[in-house]
Specification:
Number of strands: 0
Structural class: mainly alpha
Largest sheet: none
Number of helices: 4
Strand content: under 5%
Oligomer: single chain
Length: 227
């Protein structure tokens, strides 16, 4: 009887093919250091590129995930795909953080320059008025209202803008919560799909073990051929 060795040979070949297919998934790239941003235009371009690249990363991950479900070692393949996605998204997040930090720094510097220029202008105007001789008093002339400080006006506008941003905070928080719920829903669907795949693999292995047991019993039932 030669059927049992042939079955073992085919099983070994199938296992080797599965191992080779799983090993074909390359590890994720290392996160590179982000070059410093040098202009607001460059920061805006980087933020737009990050948004596009994130969509591409998610698309590539979905393709790899679909491929993994056809492989023998499903969970190992999915883990490698998730790691590649995590590293790629981390790299884009580093770029985004650096670009946004640059834009905030530029905005703060511009605001400080505007306040300093307004304050200098106000002081120069005060010095000019102090150097001029006072006008002759008139009984019917009402005193002009005090001139507001440009710095105070700018500060008031800044406070109004801060109040507006605070008013938008609940809406942004609700949007963030909705995004978090959607992420959790996608995660649960992916985990459920992995469980279903694992169950199918277990059923397939159980059937294979049953077939092997039946072949062993059939072989044992056939009397040995004596010379």
């Amino acid at each position: 009887m030669t059927s049992h060795p042939v079955v073992r040979i085919f099983a070994a070949a199938a296992l080797a093919a599965a191992l080779s297919a799983c090993a074909s998934v390359e590890p994720g790239p290392a996160v590179a250091t982000v070059d410093p941003t040098t202009s607001v235009a460059q920061a805006d371009a980087r933020l737009a590129a990050v948004a596009a690249e994130r969509a591409a990363i998610e698309a590539r991950y979905a393709e790899r995930e679909a491929v993994c479900y056809d492989k023998f070692f499903v969970n190992h393949c999915l883990d490698e795909a998730k790691e590649r996605r995590r590293v790629a998204l981390s790299a884009q997040r580093n770029i985004e953080i650096e670009a946004e930090r640059f834009k905030r720094r530029v905005k703060v510097e511009e605001r400080d320059r505007e306040i300093a220029a307004a304050e200098a202008e106000y002081k120069a105007e005060e010095a000019r008025l102090a150097a001029e001789p006072p006008p002759a008093p008139r009984e019917t002339t009402a005193l002009p209202p005090p001139k507001p400080s440009p710095a105070a006006s700018r500060m008031a506008r800044r406070n109004a803008k801060a109040a507006e941003e605070a008013a938008r905070a609940p809406e942004e928080a609700a949007k963030a919560a909705a995004n978090a719920r959607e992420f959790e829903a996608r995660k649960r669907r992916s985990e459920q799909k992995q469980k279903e795949v694992a169950q199918r693999v277990a059923e397939r292995e159980a059937k294979a073990a049953a077939r092997k047991a039946e072949e062993e019993q059939a072989k044992a039932a056939v009397p040995a051929v004596t010379k």
